[in-house]
Fold each of these.
Amino acid sequence: MIVARTILNIRLGLKTLMLHKLRSMLTMLGVVFGVGSVVAMLAVGEGASMQALEQIRSLGSHNIIIDSIKPIDDEQSGDSGARMSVYGITYNDQMRIAESFGDVRRIVPVKVLRQEGRLAGRALDLRVVGTTHEWFELVQRPLLAGRVLVGEDLHRGGNPVVLTEFGARRLLAASNVIGQSLRIGAYVYEVVGIVESEEGVAGGQTPDQQIDAYIPIQVARQRYGDISVRRQAGSQEIEQVDLHQLIVEVDELEHVERTAAGIAAMFERFHGRPDYAIRVPLALLRQAEATKRTFNIVLGSIAGISLLVGGIGIMNIMLASVTERTREIGVRRAIGAKRRQITGQFLIETMVLSGLGGAVGIGFGVSIPALITMIADMPTVITGWSIFLSVGISLSVGIVFGLYPAVRAANLDPIVALRHE
Amino acid sequence: MTLQATNKGAAIELREVRKTYIMGSQEVHALAGVTMTFGIGEYWAIMGASGSGKSTMLNLLGCLDRPTSGNYRLYREDVGSLDDNRLSDLRLRYLGFVFQSFNLIPQLTVRENIELPLFYLGWDALHSAERAAELAEQVGLGDRLGHRPAELSGGQQQRVAVARALANDPKIILADEPTGNLDSSTSAQIMDLLQTLNEQGKTIVMVTHESDIAARAGRRLHMRDGLIDRME
């Protein structure tokens, strides 16, 4: 009964609105823009946070990443000819971290080397990473062929090498390269596997595009040492770097920031100069969340103001409509309509108006993010709940701003209303 | 004033009913103590100059207003003590209004206008449509159900208004200058219609200032200065 009556009221509302098409459309605009910006805002925000989350997931939210950085003063003195610069993460740092922090599950060292590689008569400058088998556990990459490094490789004293997809391509090697000999510098290795390269993520671990091969870190230390020489036009650059990167995995998410702070304090004490950088993906996540929050507040206020203006516009028109239809209200009251039935009628009419505005707004809100994605290449995600929220918002605008005109209509004295010209 | 005893009982009983308005610092007695009974099935015309209190009387009878003092009983129900909701209910169940300016709702069709009281009575769409068609037929507008009021002549509009007033099968029909906006031939049609309704048993109270219209009613009540002047 109530449902049927509401449907009748909605039909009546639609009919009344259709009588003044232009006026109704103009009245809806505020809600259209308000709801549109809510949907668009949520889509952009959701897209941004999705992207940030994706990045952080690929870095590992439990991880703390420490990089070696060449201090600026070292670079400036480089022109005086042959001079060795010593900087970055040391083996002692790795040990200290392992010993000092109970929350650390594992530490993966990364040592980067540049050596000439030879495969089947083909010579290339290879970028080789010395690391442990745990690297492959921490930074999982799909295996294309063969196997990755395992624990035994470190102790067996063998000489296995794992190529990256990128490195394999550079060496023109196919999957039948497994078992073949690859010479790196003066030493010979056996190719045991190929792993897929992943698009390098800004601020992540040593990106795959820059790496051609992985070898056990002990082997790398023994055979190539910690000193690298790079010749540049006329001068040579000699560097001593123990480790280029450390990836520290923490056992619990809640311990990540505490451990990161501890590591930062430790490095500050033992290094004395900024030849390292500590990155905490979890902190990046927090930062991304904070950015998103700010973004949402700004866009939310815009949407809020738009909705407020839209709501006031609706209220204004509804008040005019009540005045215009005073006689109708009087007739309905004389026939026997109760006050709350009049209130209901006008309230539903306002809600039809704001609801329609909301529907058009959702249409806008859905197409704007698509446009943003196309033009600005920003990811956007439209979630079901944002649509749900928008419907709720537009109907609430109808209720909030329709209530006063509706109550005013209901409180008209029927005698006065009937006499109204 | 004398109490009218009828064989069928009283539809409306007024006892010492006063309606006082405050205009500025002055009290205006629109009704200055009226005692009167309208019997069931009677057809009354209320006459009087403007300001005589006849409109106030009709508003009170129509439960659109409550008396300042005195006693008003509509089918034994004490109207003076009822709240707005109950008054609305009384109007919905007992009364049908016909106005001078028709007062049809312009955006609704003839059928929808006639269905209006049924809507508030909670009838379903199917039965409402049936009843509306029936009533439109009764007032001779069976073929105009889909029209809007603006597409009808004044006489036709007033006939729709009568059909609407009949939709809830009211006990009493209150007519406020029902022919005031009509020419003489359409006026006659409306008066015929009202007479038929009275013959079918409806109690009718009509306000008019035209004596030839009032002559169609069974009884006439003349008012002056908020009091009953005489009855015929």
Amino acid sequence: MESHLSRKYTLAELEPGWPENLGTSRVKSSPRMHGSLIMSLRRVSRSPENSRLYVHGDPVSLIDWKAYARTDELIIREHRDEAAAKISIVIDASESLLWPDPKALDEHGGLGQVPQKVEIACRVALYLAHAHLTMGDFVTIAFLDRDGDVTRSWIPRSPADLIGMYEMCMRQGFVEALESLMSIAKWVPTQDDCVWWLSDFLRDERLPSIWNTLKRVAVLHVFSHLELSTEWMDGSTSYRDESRGRKIYLGDQLKSGQQWAEALDSWRSFVKQTITRRGGSYLAINNTTNVGDFFHWLTTEALES
Amino acid sequence: MNFQAFQSMFSPSMISIAAGMMVVGGLVIWWIVRKRLRDFWLPIVRILDFPVSRLPRIVLKKPPLIPFLMFLLAALAVLIWTLKPRLRVFSDFEPGMSQVHVYVDMSPSVSAHANLEQLGKKLVSLLEQVGSKSRVTFGTSHGPDIYEMTGASSASDLIAGMGFHRGGGKIGPGVRSQIARIGEVDQLFVLSDRDQHSWGGFQWQYLLVDSDVRHVDLSESQIATTPNAFIQDARFTSSPGALTMDWEIEISEGAFVRPVSGMVKASLAGNSLASATWEIPQGRRSVLVSVSWPATLVPRDVVGEPIEWTIEVEGGDALSMDNKFRSPVLGRRDRVVVVGEPTGELRLEDALMPLETALQVSGFEVERFDRWPSKQKNEVPDVIAASRFLAVLTGTISSLDLWCPAASDKLVPTWFIPDVSQSTFSAMCQCLTRFSVGVSADMCGAGLTREQWLATLVNIGAKQIGGDIGYANQAIAMRLKGRQSNFDFTLLTVPLRPIAKFGLTWGSFPVLVRQLAAFTTGQESMGTSDAQGLRGLWPRIPDVSALLTGEADGVASRTQILRETNVPAGESMMALVAASDLPPSWSSIGDVGRVKAPSKRDSEDPFPWIRLLVTLVALAILIELLWLWRRQKQRRVETVIYLVLCGAFLFSAHESQAQVRLQWLGVKAGPGAEFQTLAREVSSRTSLEFSPQAEYVASFDDTAAQFPWLWTSNPSALAGRDGKISGMATLWLKRGGILIVDNNQGEKGLETIFEPLMQGTVRPTGWMSIPPDHELMRSFYLLNSLPTCRGRPWKIFSFDGRVVAISTPYSLLASLQDQPARWSCESNVAYEQQVRIFVNLLMMAFTTDYKRDQIHLPEILKRLRVP
């Protein structure tokens, strides 16, 4: 029987201040939280937070020989320290992120409640913002409008702001709540140490030109689980998209063939390749992605670099 | 499936309809499939590209303007092109316009239904109604002439001026001769009554293959109940020499609806002769009426006038034209003049007494002169002109002038009668020397015997009268007629009186005289006719269209004949044909749309399409120019490039050389002669296209050296200062040019000019006549000979085995141009022959002796039907 411990939570349930932290404590010797940015120090810090016991494999040059002489313990003096980082979180709010429309889902039938893609994006964004603020970073949440520009942004000052925002989102809806607090501000991401980019990349085939000026980008490719399979499709329904190609397919045709998964994989890998070639991190998420998987990616790939 | 059904199935219209139906069907299927399905928006689809068939959504997008306009234009063109026109539109003088012809029947029977004014009005209204959409001509039953209406009054004036002809009219032959002159007729209107005689033998159904036939009925219903009496015949019943002239008149009635009575009157030259009453009782068709008057009432000096019979019908008559009947004056005594001195004291001793008596018995009135009457002696020469013939006794009068007529005298047929003496033939012979019949004075010796005289007459072409054919000595007389009918001599070889030696008795003599007279006058009814040719005979002509000889008969003009004949009985019978046997009737009150019914040539007529095509092309050019203008405004470089390309194309394009042109050397500008007819002939006979306009070059220059051939009437244009052919011209001739010297007048000049070409050749031929087996004689047509002119033949000049120059003895081109010059050479040459010569010349100039090339042999043999 599934208990609250054994249950696997999905991103559709993610909220800011999720119990599991980013796990920096695993690699850090001290509980001090000064930010997520790990900076190189010019000289060896003497503060105890930055020393730990030697672990096999650590560089010998980092051993504090004086302390060894003093205590007969191999103590490592780390040359790094943490600092407050500038973080931006960009949420794509274009039309395709607003899919699926609850009304259309009702008309289609047999699908139940499926959150909109933008809701997943907002949940992840709020969680990330909360985590960064908790770590002492400076966070800006921005919306990518339909033209692909960032014109409005919100700067939460404390984790409490985000908790409040989340509650507001639950009442009013994610997009509406976030937009209500956003102000028109010039967003200058060039100084940012890291930009989290949440989008489905359906609006434009090209990557945003602003990426060229960014130091580091971590991309979360947002899907709905309905987009990843054809199992749910209906033979008496045609599936269309009204943008450029104005394509329309019969449900039967989509359901019967294997082309869907192949085409989707090829496109996803194309997007991933394009991003990783620029030095960014990539993760495809959807409403059914396990929170654990997401955290794993965060700790292994996104934060490692 | 027959071919027509197949053709109609795959006609452009059918294909268009099928394509349209397929498009509509596709749209319906799309709509059903599209609307049957629920529509679900799935944005991720946009990044997918499946090979599976999609069901597209029909979306209206704003198309680019210029291509869209061009598409609309093309679609319009295809649409209109595949539709069949409902209404033909023609303008004046277009070769493809529809031809409507109106045939106006002006036979006597029509006059019973309409007078000339009514007929003219009917014709004009008909012409005006059908004339707006086509070319309309009309013709009458008077003859094969074709008319076109120029004004409203002209047609009715023409009809009124012509009048009804008295001869019968057959519509069939009349229409046939008129259509043959027009060519092709799309619609034929026959303006006529329903007379059986007129419509008889007209197989109008056969005309329906090529055209539409309509009958405009002039018949009026009340005519059927009106009787029509007419004179069937007038017969002369008196014996010759009787004191009264008795006639029997047969009066008939066609409709025989009720008893008819009336009066018949006879008159001659306006003088009434006699009258009688008549009545045709019920149930009978005709009645005989006797009319007689004293013979003295008919004066002898009224010549060529007929007796005019007129009937008057009580209660009216349907047809008035046949109430007049004319017959020749019969029973009147003709005069014969007999010239000869009395040969004895007593009447019985006179040599001419038996002849006079015999002529009188035969019904002639004989007038006797002792010698040839001449004006100088105040005698009466007119009496000869008024006589039927003349009998002259020769030999008894010593002086030739006293009995022999001069060549300038006005002569009637003359008998020369020999005397019993032998010198009489010599005298007759000398008389004949006055007329150019081939008799000279040295033939007429004093001792000319009958046999010698007969041999002479046979030699000069006299015809034998009497005896067996080929045995001239059995002849009673020889007949000699002048070529221009200026004299007609009957030269008797025996004395014309009963002489036992010649087998002539008192009993048989009058019979002989009567037969001779009949032979001379050419009539059976001796001494009692007054007929002079057709005019006096007043024949019944059943069909006037058969009288197509025109005005050149010399008897009377054609119009006069048509007015002076008797109405044929067929017309007078007034029998009507059932309307069902006639073409569909056309009425101006009724449905005019029937006239608009398209004829079979509609689909063949390309002119509306060509006009449409030109309009579309003009529109396309306009749109293109608009586009260019817009581009220009946007300062686009392509516009300039486009314009430069267009200009380069226009300026670099040069005239097509597919036509053969007549290149004329030696004149700056041509006389304006055109060769339309020749061009048509050449194009229809050969595969070459010949330009009707000639090209003129003043002197031999670089331009002329480019031409394949040159025509000139002035060969010195080729010559340099020394009078010999220039170097450039020599080179041109050697390189393949050919010079045609048209209408060459002097041989010497040509020989001098062409001298340089003779130098250095192995076999200098010079100018030579054309051998019969020359390629010019067989390059296209097989010609037997070329026409000469004043003894000068055609000549050719060859160089290196090839003809480089031809000289014609007359102007070939002048006889071939559209208005040919007057032929001035000895024997007339038909236009056809000239065209054949030209075609052969053309072929030889452009293909040389290609028939000698063995590669053409199979084809030539095939054409010659040689297996």
